[in-house]
Amino acid sequence: MEFDIFFSISQTPDSSGYKPSEREMFSNFLDQAEKADELGFGVGWVAQ
After folding, report:
1. Residue 40 to residues 2, 4, 48: CA-CA distances in angstroms?
2. Along the 48 residues of the chain, how does pLDDT read in single tens digits?
3. Which helix (H) or strand (E) holds 5?
4. Residue ranges per domain, the chain?
């Protein structure tokens, strides 16, 4: 069985009010996508 993963990239502030920079936001996304690949996810979907 293969699994896909869905990513939703946003700069929404967290509960403490912290809002990541665009650089940090995309860096986090790329780190997560790389980890998903290492874990064997077949496809990564990204919201527009």
Report:
1. 8, 9, 24
2. 899 999 999 888 989 999 999 999 999 999 999 999 999 999 999 997
3. strand 4-7
4. 19-47
